[in-house]
Amino acid sequence: MSEEVTPKGKAYLAGWVSWRIKRYWFYGFITIISLVVPWITVNGNHLFLLSFDKLKLHLMFIQFDMQELYLMPFLLMLLFIGIFGITVLGGRVFCGWMCPQTIFRVLYRDWIETKLLGLRKRIKNKQQEPDYSKAENKIKRLVAILIWTGLAFIAAADLMWYFVPPEDFMAYIQNPSEHSVLVGSILGIVAFLVYDVIFMKENFCVYVCPYSRIQSVLYDDDTVMAVYNPNRGGEIYNENKEKVFTKQKDLLAVNTHAECTTCESCVTVCPTHIDIRKGLQLECINCLECVDACTEVMGKLGKPSLVEWSSEKETLYMKGKTHYFRPKILGYIAILVIVAVILAMMGSKKEYMLLNINKENRLYAITKTDEGKVRVDNAYTFLLQNTLNADHKYYFDVIPPKGMEGKIKIAQPEVPFNVKPGVVKKKVVVLYTDEMLVNDDRKDTVVPITIKAYAMDDKTKVMVIRQSTFTFPRADLVK
Asked: How confident is the model at residue 1 (pLDDT cuts 50, 70, 90)?
């Protein structure tokens, strides 16, 4: 086909910005976000951090203890349901626009190999591999590998920052012998990224990633994807998916209205090495490179692209406009909203101290006071943890049932006690009464009580309530 652009073609291509350029900008945005987020803190709490080192979960600048990891399933539900919903709506748009594998491959192939080192001649031709047998190309490839290895270390560190906060990471990495797990994890991630991006390449998307197998179950006729329009371009493949036309003149001999020029620009530009004209294929990652290629070729003729980011319903079957907000999509949105609301409600019940109360095996102890009264003691073990970042002094109140107010008192500890952050404090607590709570000659009586524990300097925020019991002996033992 002639490279001359018609006046109509110039008007058609005026102001056109390729999807590839838009993807580059979006990749840059995602990269900046992923690098910056681990460094954002409010009062020492991160936006998201799952710290196995300190057994903490930071979510939306709130710190949760590992006992509160019941929130994680809801986060995973949001992630997977969100990806599935995006797939139903926009096909494998996650693969083409957000997946780290795709971003890393574009960075290595399009920028390092093509733009920086010139190993590849054209970004638009992803089928032709460089000739690595040449001495010059061997050196360039070594340089490319070294550059990517350096970037892989940054990517590995960035990933680890979501599990080891940057402030700790920087300190740990200066003493690698004392933090072999961290160093080993980084080296393992780097080794995988080098092998994956440089040697496995898009074979990871085609053969390893399970997402491509899931997508076929999620797609429907309204799913937006890269679709070739055979109604305008003509059928290049027969019903057995066998290629029957390779030249435009042969295609026109069968279909005089066919617009496909058989230039195969949409084929040579595809990173997963497929022909979009063959129809829906698992290997397609919705990068829209084929849409750009056909838009440029057909645009020079003043015609719209034969490969569109559209649905099969609209482009292939011509059954009307794509329905974006159809029942299936609304269902996904409803589920996401419900899960998000549940997560917000559970997260709002965050406890800034953790308290477990265990009653000792001995039910009670009976003694006589100097005043001649009979005293009944109940002993407990309090396991208390300060989940904040500063020391606090804690104490508690005992709330007995109605009618027994003030009759159950604290014998030990007599004064508030200090608890350091992240430390589980074991405290023996003794409650007592020197009054007749229950007059029952037949059996001991279990009296329900409420323990209200709190931080002395912030009783409103740092406060938890636990239910326990106080065992009062039968009347003949007390008398």
From this structure: very low
- Residue 3 confidence (pLDDT): 54
Q: Percent helix, strand, coil in the chain (nearest 5)? A: 45, 20, 35
Can you name the residues that pair with 309 across neighbouring β-strands? Answer: 226
The CATH number given to whatever domain includes residue 470 is 2.60.40.10
- pTM summary value: 0.78
Instruction: For residue 281, give the DSSP letter.
Output: -
Average per-residue pLDDT for the chain? 88
- What are the residues facing 450 on neighbouring strands? 399, 467
Q: Which SS3 state, helix, strand or coil, does residue 82 take?
A: helix
In the predicted model, is pLDDT for residue 2 greater than 60? no
Angle at 205 between CA 244 and CA 134, to 5 degrees: 80
Within this chain, do residues 262 and 125 fall inside the same structural domain, yes or no? yes
Domain span at 8? 1-39+91-319
44 within a domain of the structure (yes/no): no
One DSSP character per residue, 312-342 reads IIIIIS--SS--SS-HHHHHHHHHHHHHHHH
Residue 339 domain flag: no
71 residue type, one letter: L
Residue 330 lies in a domain: no
Question: 426: which strand partners?
Answer: 383
Q: How far apart are the C-alpha atoms of 255 and 380, rounded to whole Å?
A: 89
Measured distance CA(56)–CA(44) in Å, rounded: 12
Give pairs for 357-361: CB < 8 Å, separation 24+: 357/381, 357/382, 357/383, 357/451, 357/466, 357/468, 358/383, 359/468, 359/469
In the chain, the number of structural domains is 2
Side-by-side strand order, sheet with 62-65: 48-51, 56-59, 62-65
- Kindly state whether residues 133 and 246 are assigned to the same domain: yes
Question: Quick one: how far is CA 470 from the chain centroid?
Answer: 46
Handedness of CA 263, 266, 270, 274 (dihedral sign): negative
Cβ atoms 455, 462 nearer than 8 A: yes
Token couple for 401: 């049932």
Q: How many residues belong to the chain?
A: 479
- Provide the pLDDT for residue 51: 87
